[in-house]
Design a protein that fits this description.
Layout (H helix, E strand, L loop, with lengths): L3 E4 L3 H13 L4 E4 L2 H10 L5 E3 L8 H10 L8 E5 L4 H9 L4 E4 L4 H10 L4
Parallel strand pairs: 1-2, 1-3, 3-4, 4-5
Length: 121
């Protein structure tokens, strides 16, 4: 698999997620925030995207919309990693065709299950 992209405005969360993915054999790079994530997506096509929803400025839903409108990126699997555990958020994430949703704090077992569900390992 190509390198995955983590888009999260919380540095500690993003760095921890990258370390956990490495434990699962997935190489990942981090974009700290939505703007940095969009910048990375404009110049590369990651093998998968791990996306936070609640970020200042653009949110994860706006990035999901961008991914669907961009043919080069529309087939990239997305796993949403969020602290928002509201049923409406989960429904919206599913409607926008994310492969899985993980509620923070992320546990390695939960991450592994989501990665397997998305077909990344």
């Amino acid at each position: 698999m190509d390198v995955a992209l983590i888009i999260d405005d919380n540095r500690q969360t993003a760095d921890t997620l990258r370390e956990m993915l490495q434990m699962l054999g997935i190489e990942a790079m981090v974009a700290y925030g939505a703007s940095a994530g969009l910048g990375a997506l404009k110049i590369s096509r990651p093998g998968a995207i791990f996306l936070d929803i609640n970020m200042p400025g653009l949110d994860g839903f706006e990035i999901l919309g961008y991914l669907h409108r961009e043919p080069r990126l529309s087939s990239v699997p997305v796993i949403v990693v969020t602290s928002d555990d509201q049923p409406e958020t989960a429904r919206r994430v599913e409607k926008m065709k994310a492969k899985a949703i993980i509620i923070k704090p992320v546990m390695l077992e939960t991450l592994e299950a989501a990665v397997k569900k998305a077909g990344l390992i």
